[in-house]
Amino acid sequence: MFEGLSKRLGDVFDKLRGRGALSEADVDAALREVRTALLEADVALPVVRQFIDGVRPKAIGADVIRSVTPGQMVVKIVNDHLVEMLGGTVADLDLNAIPPVVILMVGLQGSGKTTSSAKIGYRLSQGPQGMAAEFGGSFSVKRKVMMASLDTRRPAAQQQLKILGEQTGVPTLPIVPLEMPLAITRRALETARREGFDVLILDTAGRLSIDEELMKEVADISALSKPQETLLVADAMTGQDAVNVAKAFNDRLTVTGIVLTRVDGDARGGAALSMRAVTGRPVKLIGVGEKFDALEPFHPDRIASRILGMGDIVSLVERAAETIEKEDAEKLAAKVRKGQFDMDDLLSQLRQLRKMGGLSGLMGMLPGAMQAKAAMSKAKIDEGQLKRQEAVILAMTPKERRNPDIIHASRKKRIAKGSGVQVQDVNKLLKQHADMLKMMKRVNKLGEKGFMRSLGGMT
Ligand code: GDP
Ligand code: MG
Q1: Which pLDDT tens digit goes with each residue over 29-49?
Q2: CATH 3.40.50.300 in the chain, residues?
Q3: Fold of 101-298
Q4: Residues with CB under 6 A from ligand 1
Q5: Which ligand is nearest to the CA of 157?
Q6: What ipTM does the predicted assembly reach?
Q7: What is the 3-state secondary structure (H, E, C) of 52-107?
Q8: Fewer CB in 10 Å around end: N or C, the chain?
């Protein structure tokens, strides 16, 4: 499938020549292939539509980075949008509540609720010790965890959790034969409170498909136990049905997070996107095996490249962008070396800065610039100011930009008028440029190598 999308996109774009901005036709051609890839990854159809509608305006008109093809560029934009829709970054469990903090596990039968309960219980009770380095946040504190099975429907379901508890060293609520789910919940809460447990994990019964009886049962359990986290457990293989499952649970309960299981299999994980889109809640954890330590935090970027099957292209485009940034930085450094940092360079720096979000970003790259940095950030250079500075430079003639020394009173007046600012704003910018030049020369004397390293130091 990987070669599939890759090759199809290649075919689409082999016919397209030239660089520059992505045209509507480029984008639509690529998005048709992306659509197929998403469906192949089992993303639910309405979510695919929503996704394509969301990414299309982002892609049209976007610049194609030098040395990548338009197709590769679309893939990168699609990938970034996907990562964003998947939540962007790792989402932590929220266990900030008065103990015992309740985690309610819900989902269809066989989705992996009981296994995931034990995995989470195990992780939380381990604390930072022996923990996979990836876990942080709420997993970095050792907690006293108890688990209770409320599954009175499947024979031996409570037994299953008890055995997992013994294997993981996580205590389970003693089983009382014939007790009903709500009564077990009450007893679990009392026991956890009395015995000073930090976290109580409630493992519920599932069904092969959504039904009212099941929904009412979990809703009642939820109302009684007031969970801080309600984790919807879903198999990564869940295909088009993911939307219905997520909707059904989310309508009756406040789902706070999703646990995606069997990510170790060959499902491409489209369910992650479907569930996230329907509930608006992040995937918090993934199950990657049957063993109780096969639990990982969810990394949106990893699942995105799995869904698209285009990880290689994404890193290729990222590398290309980095290379260009590095080349630009080196060019700039060379100019500084020759004392040639002119207004055109300042202009392109200002534009970069707007992308990077502030002058302190650039200053931070320069050694020995701490003073200037402090002064600049005190001046709180905002987006609007950067735009005004750009306008000032744009109002200069090419000759003035190359040689700002010639800008005297009458030229200043003309530039101020041309850019809609006060003469003092023009003065400020000229002074800023002069200061930068001075500073760069000083740095230059300190040693070219150190400067180059710091300027191009993104490798
Ligand atoms: P429940 O009915 O929702 O409680 O589901 P279970 O926790 O009993 O899991 C059903 C089956 O899926 C068991 O055989 C588990 O070992 C298996 N399982 C659960 N999570 C994972 C996972 O992340 N990877 C794999 N390979 N198997 C899993
Ligand atoms: Mg179970």
Answers
A1: 889 888 988 998 889 999 999
A2: 101-298
A3: Rossmann fold (3.40.50)
A4: 107, 109-115, 206, 233, 261-262, 264, 287-290, 294
A5: 2
A6: 0.99
A7: HHHHHHHHCCCECCCCCCHHHHHHHHHHHHHHHHCCCCCCCCCCCCCCCEEEEEEE
A8: C
